[in-house]
Amino acid sequence: MTGGDRPALARGIPARGGPARALVGIGQVLEELRQDFPDVSPSKIRFLEAEGLIAPERASSGYRRFAVADIERLRFILTAQRDEYLPLRVIKERLDAASGDGAGAAASAAALTRSELLEATGADEALLAELEDYGLVRHARTYGTEALTVVRCAVAVREYGIQPRHLRAVKAAADREISLVEQVVAPLARQKGSREPALRAARDVAGHIARLHATLVEDGLTDAGLASGPPAAGTPHNVPREPAGLRSASGR
Questions:
Q1: What fold is seen in the domain 3-84+94-98?
Q2: Per the confidence metrics, is the pTM higher than 0.90?
Q3: Sequence-separated (6 or more) residues with CB below 8 Å from residue 5
Q4: Which residue in 82, 97, 104 sits closest to 36, CA to CA?
Q5: How far, in Å, CA of 120 to CA of 148, rounded?
Q6: Collapsed DSSP state (helix, strand, coil) of residue 246
Q7: Where do the domains of the chain lie?
Q8: At how many degrees (to 10) do helices 26-33 and 42-50 cross?
Q9: DSSP class of residue 83?
Q10: What digits encode the pLDDT tens for the residues 113-122?
């Protein structure tokens, strides 16, 4: 089954129930899922069932039988684990909210505790504390998808010697861009009635600024000979460049 042929459920959070189709065994489920998740195994599926994330039917022989909704729930779970590194508790809350069993999708979008955020990102307490000190992550009882993304990026760039203190420039640039957007849409925001025009304008302006920012960075890296693309004249082919990184005060 290709991405374009998947049911609509695959593009959102699938609730239990769904299109009627003959129940299938675990072997057929694995065959379908392994196109996107090569490492999925029977033990993984049994574990997810034991954790209450799926509930396949049981035949009289005791074998598990899966409906299309079960397969799409599995696809959602595996995607959330692979792409967002979400703990199973948060994934289960999303699934329960979508099926009407939870307090609502908005409340459970990604309510990670501090320890769960650290586990999901591979960060340590010191890194998270620094990110909070420099204003890149808001200190809170629970953390959302924005914090998840910021911490994951901070963990990734730390491999190149970039520390949270170096990211203050990124935060300052973002704050200036936010201020610019606010100034532009302020007249619309002050108008009586629906806020939708102001929100739509803010999204549009922010999108253009983000693309401009990315283009200017890419152009600057190209001028410095650091962007991917055809090598400059006289540059030997197949010679990898080592990332320069940022050295700390200690020189490491």
A1: Multidrug-efflux Transporter Regulator; Chain: A; Domain 2 (1.10.1660)
A2: no
A3: none
A4: 82
A5: 8
A6: coil
A7: 3-84+94-98, 168-222
A8: 110
A9: I
A10: 898 889 888 8
pLDDT, one tens digit per residue, over 70-129 is 898 999 999 988 887 788 888 888 887 766 544 444 444 457 889 888 988 889 999 999
Chain-centroid distance of CA 238 in Å reads 33
DSSP characters over 144-196: -HHHHHHHHHHHHHHTTT--GGGGHHHHHHHHHHHHHHHHHHHHHHHSSS-SH
Give the per-residue SS3 of 194-234.
CCHHHHHHHHHHHHHHHHHHHHHHHHHHHHCCCCCCCCCCC
Looking at residue 80, what DSSP letter applies? I
In whole angstroms, what is the distance from residue 95 CA to residue 239 CA? 48
Alpha-carbon distance values, 60 to 5, 63, 65, 71, 215 (Å):
32, 8, 10, 21, 61
If DSSP codes are grouped into helix, strand and coil, which group holds residue 84? helix
Q: Which residue has the tokens 């803010």?
A: 202
Buried b (16+ CB within 10 A) or exposed e, 53-90: bbebeeeeeeebbbbbbbbbbbbbbbebbeebbbbeeb
